[in-house]
Amino acid sequence: MTVKHKSHRNITVKKRDNIFSKHGWIILSIHGEPYERGYSHGSLLAHHFSQVDKVFKYIVVDHFHTTFDEYLETCSRHISPVVMNSYPEFYEEIRGISEGIMSKQSALPVNVHYLIAWNAVLSMYSYYGNNHVQRCCAFIASGDATADGKIVMAHNTHSDYASAVLGNIVLHVHPAKGRSFRMQTYPGYIASGTDWFLCSSGIIGCETTISKTNYKPQFGAPYFCRIRQVMQYANHLADCASIMQTDNAGDYACSWLFGDINTNTIMLCEIGKNRVHIEETKNGVYYGANSAIDYELRSIDTTDSFDDSNSSTGSRTMRLQSLLLREYAGKISIANAKTILSDHYDVYSNKTDPGERTICKHNKSSPRGATDGKVVDSTMAKTLSFYGRMGPTCGKSFQVKEFVKKHPKYKKWASVLQEMPHRKWVKI
């Protein structure tokens, strides 16, 4: 397939750029220079953008309480110039994605500014005052904490069941410059969004959102550009910490969990707006459940109480501590990591009861919960492979009609919600 874009160069989706499906995941490989790989990305995933457009617009209005046009204008004012001027490589890739999409979906106005605003959704929660987003549980362990002394990393995403279904893309990027990497992501994203990635440098990473931030970001470099820079260009853990702090906007506060499989060293890199906390070890475990581990960061940049077992963050944090530091201490493995991510024990009620306070999160009265699971160890990471489960981490299905019938106040969500059937863990 060959088309001409505005500069009249012939652009071809290379035979080596491919796409296939596996147990709910869509696995995609792209190669080359920024525009070239972006064009392949956009063209191969173009048919997903009718749903992306529908969900994107719904999220902006429902979560940010503003109009879609106002949101696009705000992102165009605050974020597009930074991407264009400070990250020209990524801007060119986004331009390629846009033109690849519109070569197949010409009716959709998916221009560069639209895609930057789509990539920036997570950055904009704190801007619009929705600072209570709680998006995941995660941990990374090494040395005495694991069964073989090497790294084990695990993560599940907590999201609404509209956007979550779009996060089933596993994108393997082979850039002309820098390192190749594989990440879970969304159509049109240049970074992960769910923040799960494995790099040919030996760097692996994930994160958990730090919720209840008490500030409004003043934009420097948006988080999605900084973490993409890590994936493509970081060679050591020190690079990860340095890149994430450079021109930090405070736009998406996170507890980043990084590992280097070359040295079996793991790092906790917690970044707010006014406080950064970094530590690393070869013997131990770091974890996150949407509450900063560092007391000073929690005190300065959030209103989080941390140790309230009746809260989702407090209960999940306490349960992770119990499982990682006691029950599975020295025994953390791929199999046990899957079990931990699927855990339904509620610390507050002191019983197995899947809900808002459990690691495998289930919201019984809203269309949100744990929407995937991923686990990897050092051996798998050498080939950029991991185990993933698309859908609720425990394997339970989500059925739209059944949910809306039981909770009619969410009838308006029915147009954007999609089924999440039972899926198996699968090697990717």
Please provide a written account of the structure:
The model is unreliable at 1-8 (pLDDT under 50). This protein is α+β, with helices and mostly antiparallel strands and 428 residues long. The chain has a single domain, classed as 4-Layer Sandwich (Penicillin V Acylase, Chain A), CATH 3.60.60. The protein is built from 14 helices and 20 strands.
Main-sheet strand order equals 3-4-7-8-9-10-11-12-13
Beta-strand residue fraction: 15-25%
Number of domains: 1
What percent of the residues sit in helical stretches (DSSP H or I)? 25-40%
Number of helices: 14
Runs with pLDDT <50, length 5+? 1-8
Quick description:
With 428 residues, the protein is an alpha+beta fold. Helices cover 32% and strands 24% of the residues.
Topology:
Blueprint: E1 2-4, E2 10-12, E3 18-22, E4 25-32, H1 34-44, H2 49-64, H3 68-78, H4 80-86, H5 88-102, H6 112-119, H7 121-127, E5 136-142, E6 152-160, E7 169-175, E8 181-185, E9 196-199, E10 203-209, H8 223-233, H9 237-245, E11 254-260, E12 265-271, E13 276-281, E14 284-288, H10 295-301, H11 312-327, H12 334-341, E15 345-346, E16 351-352, E17 368-370, E18 372-377, H13 378-381, E19 387-390, H14 400-406, E20 426-427
Parallel strand pairs: 4-7
Antiparallel strand pairs: 1-2, 3-4, 5-6, 5-14, 6-17, 6-18, 7-8, 8-9, 9-10, 10-11, 11-12, 12-13, 15-16, 18-19, 19-20
Helix pairs in contact: 1-5, 3-6, 4-5, 8-9
